[in-house]
Amino acid sequence: MISHISQIGVYVTDQDAALSFYTEKLGFEVRKLQDGGDFKWIEVAPPGSPTTISLATKDFPVGTESKIGGFTDIAFETADIKALHETLSQRGVRFTVEPELQPYGKWFAAFVDQDDNEFFVFQPA
């Protein structure tokens, strides 16, 4: 049986810039950083999360250029969306949707990374 989601990928143009964004602006921790010269494997995650995000370049695998700069299908959860919005905004994170209460009862916001990859953030009602 599958126990959990281990890893998801986000494609970026510059792994070093992405690493800086995810660690310095979002506060994620580095779970894996292997530099093989021509190839770098980077995994980051929110503290305590069992699921990591791999920061992959558009060159691996070939043909992923179209996956940069769009909706990622990744949603994060927070206990205080307004405080998160304030903190991340102060760190330079650009929100595409400000926090708002949705008709289905959850708070919702959206932001982008350095490559305009878009993420959702939810706060349970």
UniProtKB/TrEMBL annotation:
Gene Ontology MF terms: lactoylglutathione lyase activity; metal ion binding
Keywords, ordered alphabetically: Metal-binding
VOC domain sequence ranges: 4-124
InterPro entries, alphabetized: Glyas_Bleomycin-R_OHBP_Dase, Glyas_Fos-R_dOase_dom, Glyoxalase_1_CS, VOC_core
Coiled coil spans: none
PROSITE patterns per record: GLYOXALASE_I_1, VOC
Protein's UniProt keywords contain Protein transport: no
Official protein name in the record: Uncharacterized conserved protein PhnB, glyoxalase superfamily
Organism field: Saccharopolyspora shandongensis
